[in-house]
Specification:
4 copies of one chain form a homotetramer. By secondary structure, chain A is an alpha/beta fold. Chain A has 2 domains: 4-118, NAD(P)-binding Rossmann-like Domain (Rossmann fold); 127-279 and 314-336, Dihydrodipicolinate Reductase, domain 2. Helices cover 40% and strands 24% of the residues of chain A. Chain A has 13 helices and 15 strands. In chain A, strands 12-11-7-10-9-8-15 form a 7-stranded mixed β-sheet. In chain A, helix 5 packs antiparallel against helix 12. Chains in contact: A-B, A-C, A-D, B-C, B-D, C-D. The interface between A and B is large, with 37 and 37 residues.
Amino acid sequence: MTTLNLGMVGAGRIGQVHAANLAARVPGARLVAIADIAFEAAQRLAGQYNIPHAYDNPEAILDDPAIDAVIVASATDTHPAIIEGAAAAGKHIFCEKPIARSLAEIDGALAAVDKAGVKLQIGFNRRFDANFARVRRAIVDGEIGQPHLLHIISRDPGPPPLSYIRVSGGIFLDMTIHDFDMARFLLGSEVVEVYTSGAVLVDPAIGEAGDIDTALVLLTFANGALGVIDNSRRAVYGYDQRVEVLGSGGAIQTENKYPNAAVISTGDHIRRDLPLHFFLERYADSFALELAQFVEAVVHDRPTPVTGEDGRIPVVMALAAAKSLHEKRPVRLDEIAPA
Amino acid sequence: MTTLNLGMVGAGRIGQVHAANLAARVPGARLVAIADIAFEAAQRLAGQYNIPHAYDNPEAILDDPAIDAVIVASATDTHPAIIEGAAAAGKHIFCEKPIARSLAEIDGALAAVDKAGVKLQIGFNRRFDANFARVRRAIVDGEIGQPHLLHIISRDPGPPPLSYIRVSGGIFLDMTIHDFDMARFLLGSEVVEVYTSGAVLVDPAIGEAGDIDTALVLLTFANGALGVIDNSRRAVYGYDQRVEVLGSGGAIQTENKYPNAAVISTGDHIRRDLPLHFFLERYADSFALELAQFVEAVVHDRPTPVTGEDGRIPVVMALAAAKSLHEKRPVRLDEIAPA
Amino acid sequence: MTTLNLGMVGAGRIGQVHAANLAARVPGARLVAIADIAFEAAQRLAGQYNIPHAYDNPEAILDDPAIDAVIVASATDTHPAIIEGAAAAGKHIFCEKPIARSLAEIDGALAAVDKAGVKLQIGFNRRFDANFARVRRAIVDGEIGQPHLLHIISRDPGPPPLSYIRVSGGIFLDMTIHDFDMARFLLGSEVVEVYTSGAVLVDPAIGEAGDIDTALVLLTFANGALGVIDNSRRAVYGYDQRVEVLGSGGAIQTENKYPNAAVISTGDHIRRDLPLHFFLERYADSFALELAQFVEAVVHDRPTPVTGEDGRIPVVMALAAAKSLHEKRPVRLDEIAPA
Amino acid sequence: MTTLNLGMVGAGRIGQVHAANLAARVPGARLVAIADIAFEAAQRLAGQYNIPHAYDNPEAILDDPAIDAVIVASATDTHPAIIEGAAAAGKHIFCEKPIARSLAEIDGALAAVDKAGVKLQIGFNRRFDANFARVRRAIVDGEIGQPHLLHIISRDPGPPPLSYIRVSGGIFLDMTIHDFDMARFLLGSEVVEVYTSGAVLVDPAIGEAGDIDTALVLLTFANGALGVIDNSRRAVYGYDQRVEVLGSGGAIQTENKYPNAAVISTGDHIRRDLPLHFFLERYADSFALELAQFVEAVVHDRPTPVTGEDGRIPVVMALAAAKSLHEKRPVRLDEIAPA
């Protein structure tokens, strides 16, 4: 297999990111088909990146024997069926997070993948960000000793539309899920218990929609470490994505990414420009890297760097966090999904 | 009253700091007497800073009509009696934190102060640190809008001796108490509930002594804001004292203080020297400022910047934090001390 | 003209950078032919990026009527002939710096371009770097008032091979030339006089080869501002590329670019990783941007952002800097090339 | 000699700084007399710091056998006579910079000191600043190898009154002199040649007064290193005092000092407060340290850390810099003062 032939389901915002990266930054792979129920979107993307085939249904991709692997970039509720279809067709799968919003669906999809023996990678792209990857490496390499305390700051520049919030499954499944993955990834240890403190401080309408917009989630890790995730739906200065780990031998912390490193001094203050605005800019490189590693894993028959189980556990954590918020008590993950 | 005559009880480490500051950095005041049951320590300090009188008992100070105000820098268990004696003698009082380790003692001491109508200031010196004062000012001036999320990082370079830990009243009364004060001070709002997650990660002997050495304490404020305090008894890189506040209109964060601002680039990395080692170096200026403001408050008959109530509430918070840790549930402050 | 057809002469290091960028990051253009006297290099590049034609001589490109524009990425001594050939063939030209090493050759090439009326852009890619572009914007927008003092720090991680140094034309034509361009670009004013102080401190062999490896070049601008360029052939911590401008209303300075923004604190020091190693990493984005703007300028018939005159003047500055070094006196640019 | 008795001539701005430091931060010394031809200023200072004697003439101090050492903080033109008088009286001397404005006067004063065998320290306080001392230590300890390139940025927040500029001896004797000392101090090597580029960009009236307000001074060191001093009479963001050294094994650079380390993020930018405003704030600690080391040198009969020769050479450099500016050519120091 010299070049991997990929088909993608979903020509929306994240599908466009993947298409651009496949055109230029992912060696050894070729995007040969794009499907979207909004057929015009599929056609437009096909035209833009010289993708040979555009379809209005995912089956056309699943049915094409020339396609080696499928990228699932469609709406979350379509993920399980496409995963199962792709697995049945013997195709490797790259699926955006979350796999699904219910554990039953996730377990069904993962069982299908297991049975088919195909590879599955979940789109937790932030693991591939240079800053967070550096933190992980520091911990793996022992640069800071045994981890004791973890901070994850994860704030959006502004809340999504209320229409989206209503169907998103809540802040924990929609936003914190990336941070739940990051917590496990960085520390290399599972979370056993969460305690959530939440509030509606950004926009009362979010509260009326049944969600919160501000949260602190305490994490207790199997290795004894403690952690806290800080989420806000709005940081007026822009996308705020930092982590910090205190270990027995040192600490590591990361800064945001900025469009430039210029510092301006005036008679009023010393200032710099705001950080990169949102995830498309901030994580541009990580989207390319995750696909490149997926392709490498398939081509060289190696495990993918973000497995199905890696996609499942953050959903368990999100459910536990929501339960903790509502019941005002710490919740063990094995209450949600017995180990 | 042109110059305020001060007597100090306690010639230990913090007493020496106060004596040095009074000699040079606190205008309008003169330290005229020092008492310590370790008489030699009192004599030594008197010799070093030209303090006219040295005693081996606090009563000698309380009985001297020429003394306007008393600095209480002796062991915590002696505080209530000295406060009550000073109040009875009509002397103003500057007392190190905590006032006492039990609410009953604190309430007794504060009642005596109230009855006597003397001024009382508690030694929460960190409020006078340039960084934290700047954060407070940003919030008061509306530079970051309404506060939503607070982080306090407060880590010591190393744990105190086990002998001290055993009598300290626990990490919350000994170490976190400064952070409890800081939380109230910065946000200008009371904490109504705490939830504590704690661990013994630094030294098992601390656990055997009945204490913890690593903690995350979640705070819920009356104004709706959320906060988290991060405590560790050991950060190998030194004293780590930072805060960060996200507000509706912006955010403010502070860095540690360093002995110099030099950055060295070598073939291995870009580096700088470690932060100032511990509280005597880091908070040197704040110790001088708190005394200067105490003297000003007394001389100009104004309220002190850190009142008796400011000394009492962090103790309530510490007791609530300990209760939360032991009962693994959020604890409201009014469970400890009905409002 | 919907898509611009480009031919490139030179399949070496910089040619490879351009080929990769044209494959992915330069909308509206297609690289249709590559020529190199090392024919295998041309073939390899053609294979890697699906370039339809590979040749062993530049004439094949100049003779192809389907080619709209030529990228000149071959050895400096071949530039004038290729520019003149391309101009005669009515093709637009993107040429790497320097245009040539003698003013006579440069003037000949520029005259040919003028006569043919084709567009010419010189590869001073650093103008497109986010940091330096931000400095230029600050000056244009008046963020720092009138410029008074300019510092350019420009240090390589290590010297090139001696064999290269011997034919490079010297440090001013090879290395400082980028800084000469940057000085004019940032301040928007011409340099009228230079004074050079130079030394051999990095490697005596460089001195034996007739060159220097360390230099400070003072600049006097037509608008009265003063500037200094700091060059070293070796900074052991890596590629050091910073500028700083003091103006009447403020100052702006830029930092290097780093692979990540992680900061590690240990018991020894606070540290971060070294900056991006050399120009291919540091200026990766600027190489893509300069080509994109060249393509835009041609397609929309607008002036190119780096003109032939922009390519000529830094050579005049380099010759003046060398003369100043040898004669130990300030040298006006009009001594080299009468205005 | 348990406590050193000091007399000070000059109760102006810098005299007040010394008096405050002697009251609190210089162990082992006592300021017993203050003289100023403005007698009221002397009296005021005496009252403020409990200085036993105030005089309206320096002779009263020189004549007092109980005084061990004299601090010369009066106007520059009075320095030589007071130094000579103090030396004749066998008193050690701490003298503000510059010793005098002419080499003849300086040489006379230094000869008197030599003959008397008393100790002399010159007030180049910046050597004692934590940042610059750290740079010196890095070089002495070999942290950055052999120095190759030095940058000194030294900018005032605003120009002094024109009346002062007219009598100051010019920017090189008044302002750059500190940087000339810093250059020698940091590199531990003498400057052999200077080349000056200067301009009037801040205020035309400074030019009309015969001075410049903006300068770049190139330095060539005996050890082969090159350096540049950047001076401006006005940086609107405040006092800018930084140095940077590139060495064969690394580099070191220093930042300014700030009143706090708080960083504020808003919807407009990331900002911090301006640096400490001017030299009294920025160098507060260094003024105390220089006196403490002077006292130690006298008490323990050790060489002072800033000798008479250290006071003389920067004047030679200033004269050479002025000559270079006027003659538009590099000037060797041995043209001014044969070695």
